[in-house]
Write a structure and sequence with these properties.
The protein is an alpha/beta fold and 403 residues long. The protein is built from 14 helices and 15 strands. A hairpin with a 5-residue loop joins β12 and β13. α3 packs parallel to α4 (107-120), α5 crosses α6 and α8 (233-242) runs parallel beside α9. The longest helix has 20 residues, at 304-323. The model is unreliable at 6-24 (pLDDT under 50).
Length: 403
C-alpha cells in the first residue's frame, strides 16, 4: 500500500510541474543577423543586388534597428550565381551566427542554400529564385518562397495570351533551373488549353547574341515567341525587335519580366506585352509610399524581388519581436501563424508547403503615349487571387503537405 507521505510527495511534485513557469524564450545571439545573399554584380543585379540589400535595411529600420535590446545587422554577399559559392557563403554565415538569409538570388544558388537550411533549421527567405522545386520536392520547413515562382508566372501568362487564340508557340529558354521550370509549366498549360509548341532552344546564361535562336523561331512557323531568359530578357527582346519579328506577325511574350527590364528595353519594344508581377507601386497607397521611399534611396523603383525582400525580412523580424526568440523553428511557426500584410501584399499567408501565397497581378505595358512619366510602365489588367495564382496543394510533392 502507498504511504500517506508518498502520496503527498507525488501531489507536491505534480503541483510544481503544473505551476512552474514555461522556459523563457530568448534571443540567444548577440545580434539579429540577416544575410542578403544575392547577385551583386551579374545579370540579375538590377532586379536583386544592392536594391535587395537596401530593401532589407528599410525593413530593419522600421524596428528602430534593434529588437529586445539586440541590434539588427544586415549583411550582404555576392554568390556570383554559382551554387557552390552560395553554399560556401551560407555555411560561413551560419557558423558566424547569421540566423536568416534573404533573397537567395538565382534558383540554382537558392536550391544549394536550401539544402543547408534543411539540415540546420535556420531561416531562408527566398525572393529572387522562382524554381518550382523550392516549394515542391525540395521544400524545407524553415524556408519560404516569397514572391514569384515558375508555376504562377507561366500559368498566368499563357492563360492571358491564349484568351485570344491558339497559335503555336516557340520557346527561347534559359538553360538553368528557373528557365526549365517556366517552360515545363507553360507547355503543360498550353496543352491544357489546346495549343501547340512548334519548337524550343536552350540559351546559356549571359548569351550576348540571340541571332541563331531568333532565326530558328522565325523558321519554325510559330506565331508566339516566348522569351524565357530571365536576366537576359532585355538583350533578347531588343534583338527580336531589331529582327522585325513583330512586323512579320510574331507576338513576343516575355515569360518572366519586371519593371527594371521594361526600363532597360523601353516602352517601344515592350508596349502591349502582358506581364505577371507580384508587386507594382500603384497597387495600394502603402505600396506607393514604400516605392517612393525606395526611389529616394536608389533612384529607381523597386523590382518585385526587392519589394519581396522587404516584406519577408519585415515579417521575420516581427515574428522575432513577438515571441522574443531567434530559434528558427519557433520563429517560422509564428510567421506561419501570422497573416502577411504590408506594402508588398495585404492578404498573404505561408502555406504548409512553405509557399507564401498572395495576390498576383496581370499587367499590360503601356505605350509611350500612355505613360505619364519615368517608371509609369504598366496598367492593371486583372488581379489573380492566391487560390488561382499558385500551384494547388493537391499537386504538391512537398513532404510537409498533409495528404
Amino acid at each position: 500500500m502507498v504511504s500517506y507521505r508518498t502520496k503527498l510527495a507525488a501531489i507536491l511534485l505534480i503541483t510544481l510541474i503544473l505551476t512552474a513557469p514555461a522556459a523563457h524564450a530568448e534571443i540567444k545571439g548577440d545580434a539579429i543577423r540577416i544575410g542578403v545573399l544575392t547577385d551583386m554584380n551579374g545579370i540579375f543585379a538590377t532586379a536583386m543586388g544592392a536594391g535587395s540589400v537596401e530593401a532589407a535595411r528599410m525593413a530593419a529600420e522600421e524596428f528602430g534597428g534593434k529588437i529586445g535590446g539586440k541590434p539588427i545587422e544586415i549583411l550582404q554577399a555576392d554568390h556570383q550565381n554559382k551554387p557552390d559559392v552560395a553554399a560556401s557563403l551560407a555555411r560561413k554565415w551560419f557558423n558566424d551566427g547569421v540566423q536568416a538569409i534573404a533573397d537567395g538570388g538565382s534558383s540554382g544558388a537558392s536550391l544549394a542554400v536550401q539544402e543547408l537550411v534543411r539540415a540546420n533549421g535556420r531561416i531562408f527567405l527566398i525572393s529572387g529564385a522562382g524554381a518550382n522545386q523550392l516549394t515542391d520536392e525540395a521544400c524545407a520547413p524553415t524556408s519560404v518562397q516569397w514572391t514569384h515562382d515558375a508555376y504562377s508566372t507561366a500559368t498566368a501568362v499563357v492563360s492571358g495570351i491564349m484568351q485570344s487564340g491558339r497559335e503555336p508557340w516557340f520557346f527561347i529558354t534559359g538553360d538553368y533551373a528557373f528557365g526549365h521550370s517556366i517552360e515545363a509549366t507553360a507547355r503543360a498549360r498550353i496543352a491544357e488549353l489546346g495549343g501547340t509548341v512548334a519548337g524550343s532552344v536552350k540559351a546559356q546564361l549571359g548569351t550576348p547574341d540571340y541571332s541563331s535562336f531568333l532565326l530558328q523561331a522565325q523558321s519554325s512557323g510559330a506565331k508566339i515567341l516566348a522569351i524565357n531568359v530571365a536576366g537576359d530578357n532585355a538583350t533578347a527582346i531588343k534583338q527580336a525587335e531589331e529582327f522585325g519579328l513583330v512586323a512579320q506577325g510574331m507576338k513576343i511574350v516575355p515569360m518572366s519580366f519586371q519593371n527594371v527590364d521594361i526600363h532597360a528595353v523601353g516602352l517601344k519594344a515592350t508596349r502591349g506585352d502582358l506581364i505577371l508581377t507580384s508587386f507594382f507601386e500603384d497597387i495600394s497607397p502603402a505600396a506607393r509610399r514604400f516605392s517612393d521611399a525606395f526611389y529616394a534611396r536608389r533612384n529607381a523603383m523597386p523590382s518585385q524581388i526587392q519589394a519581396g525582400v522587404y516584406s519577408a525580412v519585415r515579417h521575420y523580424l516581427q515574428a522575432v519581436k513577438d515571441i522574443e526568440s531567434d530559434d528558427g523553428a519557433t520563429v517560422m511557426a509564428k510567421m506561419k501563424a501570422t497573416p502577411v500584410s504590408d506594402a508588398y501584399t495585404s492578404n498573404g499567408r505561408i502555406r504548409e508547403d512553405q509557399r507564401m501565397v498572395h495576390d498576383l497581378y496581370l499587367v499590360q505595358v503601356k505605350t509611350p503615349q500612355e505613360s505619364k512619366g519615368p517608371w509609369d510602365f504598366v496598367q492593371l489588367v486583372a488581379t489573380i487571387p492566391p487560390d488561382q495564382a499558385f500551384r494547388p496543394l493537391d499537386r504538391s510533392k512537398c513532404g510537409l503537405v498533409r495528404k
